Amino acid sequence: MKEFQSSRDLQMEEAKKTIPPYMKAISGSLGGTVEACCLQPIDVIKTRLQLDRTGSYRGIVHCGASVSSSEGVRALWKGLTPFATHLTLKYALRMGSNAVLQGAFKDSETGTLSNRGRVLAGFGAGVLEALVIVTPFEVVKIRLQQQRGLSLELLKYKGPVHCAHTIIREEGLLGLWAGAAPTLVRNGTNQAAMFTAKNAYDVVLWKKHEGDGKVLQPWQSMISGFLAGTAGPICTGPFDVVKTRLMAQSRDGDEAKYKGMSHAIRTIYAEEGLRALWKGLLPRLMRIPPGQAIMWAVADQITGLYERRYLHPAPL
Q1: Alpha carbons 249 and 257: distance in angstroms, whole number
Q2: Do 21 and 102 contact (CB within 8 A), yes or no?
Q3: Calpha distance 30→44 (Å, rounded)
Q4: Solcar repeat ranges (predicted)?
Q5: φ/ψ (deg, to 5) at 172
Q6: Can you tell me whether residue 210 is helix, strand or coil?
Q7: Residue 7 pLDDT greater than 70, yes or no
Q8: pTM above the 0.85 mark?
Q9: Distance CA 130, CA 303 (A)
């Protein structure tokens, strides 16, 4: 009986060993930097397709080829600076806040986290990142990406800082939070699904539990991250399209076409049909799951090394 109690106490103590939020934040920021550099062209193509109301592009390949031939290959990396900064800060906040919220939702006695707690922590982290970082950065990124050509003299926005300054001057500070409502819904749902799915895939595929000292191989993290990143884009496609349309429209004198999230959904459906609400889904699936694969491959290595060194040090 004493041996059973001792074993149970040991399991509870192991469950309470967790990676601190600051390490999760560091791992996420480094993973986000690598992801941004690799996948920026796909994000540019996704934005151009979502903003294409006249059918100028016949698909992903045609869009990429058209942009490259008419504007140069460098145009596929338009908005990289705000995108990389945005991803680095976003993943730091996402991973760190998710770790804090998971700690808050854990059972105080056993140190275990329920599936409900994991979902709520992911949703909270997604809402927080959307409000603090994602919305203003994506407004700037989308305004830069929708511009055609490379000549600065012909472009309204000369760069990220000039773009943000122009938006604030012409539309007010809240102009940087255009499309905030669909962004909150999209990111909250995405992260609730992603964190829950990533943990489930790690357990089912690799028998990996957080805090157990086991470090996944990069290819294992990439598989789990890729699979975890697929559900969100399909479920939140309409919110992503609406977010992009709301962020792209300027309010400098002309009346805005879309009055808000609900009005945008109704207008797009009436004018362009139901399928238009999932415009850009394929490039999102080409970017988000691979992006999650890259990010988790980096993040898991960093947190895994921390686990081995500080939570489960090898005996001397």
Answers
A1: 8
A2: no
A3: 22
A4: 19-104, 116-204, 216-305
A5: 90, 165
A6: coil
A7: no
A8: no
A9: 24
The helix (H) or strand (E) run that includes residue 212 is none
Q: What is the DSSP string of 133-188?
A: IIHHHHHHHHHHHT---S-GGG-S--SHHHHHHHHHHHH-GGGGGTTHHHHHHHHH
Backbone angles phi, psi at 55, to 5 degrees: 75, 30
99-133 pLDDT per residue, tens = 999 999 998 888 889 999 999 999 999 999 999 99
Which two three-digit tokens encode residue 54? 């006249």
Whether the CB-CB separation of 213 and 305 falls below 8 Å is answered with: no
Closest CA to 51 of 198, 248, 238, 225: 248
Q: How many CB atoms lie within 10 A of CB 253?
A: 6
Q: How far apart are CA 302 and CA 291, in angstroms?
A: 17
Give residue 51's Cα distance to chain centre.
20
Q: Which amino acid makes up residue 134?
A: V
